[in-house]
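Tokens as discussed.
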């Protein structure tokens, strides 16, 4: 009964997509660039000549569509974005290569495929490589420790084997129940599944705990793109969308960034894409100063 009561309380807490939660400005590592206009043309040229690989699924595709939107708005950014095939494991020319990776709802399959792609040639021919998990990969039955241990061991091996490649870690994207009838139906189905002990595709706690592990291990130590923080932060007010259940704060995707509660709409993808481009520019700038 306690389990069901907790689930019901969590459900009530997220009927609407959260309340504002102010960000504490205590980060040790501030970005070198805050807007696209801050970035010198020379830095964009450096990025243009990088060989980049990005493994993803649907949210990653949203981000890439956002990158294309930003490039259309700021023509000083010139990137050759190419969806590569399985056999294209060597990047011989400057490129922003990407492809689907692994299987949704099986996060370890994504880590394993990224690992294999690096050993097939991408590790030795890419300058920057990264992949991301999806919100659908984590539910109430996910063994968070097993997924994280497999991920961290794999990334440590790749970093040691390919020291010239910059590997970027990502927090996993967030969710938010959308407003209206669709959101109500999704919340009801989610609650029933959780109460019955079935797989739960809309689970806030598992993504929270995995992201905490990612931040604890890599923040300030290795390159980390905090996608979850960006998705939950209002770019105007600096507040984070959150709710509290049982004394625990859970962050959520901003409702205005999504039409279905998980994927990024035009506004959301533009914000995330711009942050990613600024992050990559900052990474190159700081790497040159080492």
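Sequence:
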């Amino acid at each position: 009964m306690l389990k069901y009561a907790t689930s019901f309380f969590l459900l009530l807490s997220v009927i609407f997509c959260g309340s504002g939660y102010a960000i504490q400005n205590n980060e040790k590592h501030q970005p070198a660039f805050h807007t696209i206009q801050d970035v010198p043309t020379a830095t964009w040229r450096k990025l243009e000549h990088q060989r980049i690989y990005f493994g993803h699924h649907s949210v990653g595709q949203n981000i890439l569509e956002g990158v294309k939107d930003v490039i259309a708005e700021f023509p000083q950014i010139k990137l050759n974005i190419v969806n590569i095939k399985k056999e294209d494991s060597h990047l011989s020319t400057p490129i922003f290569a990407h492809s689907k990776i692994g299987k949704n709802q099986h996060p370890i399959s994504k880590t394993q495929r990224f690992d294999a792609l690096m050993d097939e040639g991408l590790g030795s021919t890419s300058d920057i490589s990264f992949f991301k998990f999806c919100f659908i990969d984590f539910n109430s039955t996910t063994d968070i420790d097993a997924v994280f241990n497999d991920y961290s061991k794999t990334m440590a091996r790749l970093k040691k084997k390919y020291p010239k490649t910059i590997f970027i870690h990502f927090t996993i994207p967030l969710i938010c129940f959308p407003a209206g009838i669709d959101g109500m139906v999704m919340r009801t189905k989610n609650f029933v599944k959780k109460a019955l002990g079935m797989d739960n595709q809309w689970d806030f706690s598992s993504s929270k705990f995995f992201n905490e592990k990612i931040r604890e291990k890599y923040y300030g130590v290795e390159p980390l793109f905090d996608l979850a923080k960006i998705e939950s932060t209002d770019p105007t007010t600096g507040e984070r969308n959150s709710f509290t259940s049982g004394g625990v704060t859970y962050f959520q995707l901003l409702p205005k960034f999504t039409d279905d509660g998980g994927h990024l709409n035009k506004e959301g993808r533009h914000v995330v894409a711009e942050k990613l481009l600024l992050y990559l520019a900052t990474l190159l700038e700081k790497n040159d100063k080492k």
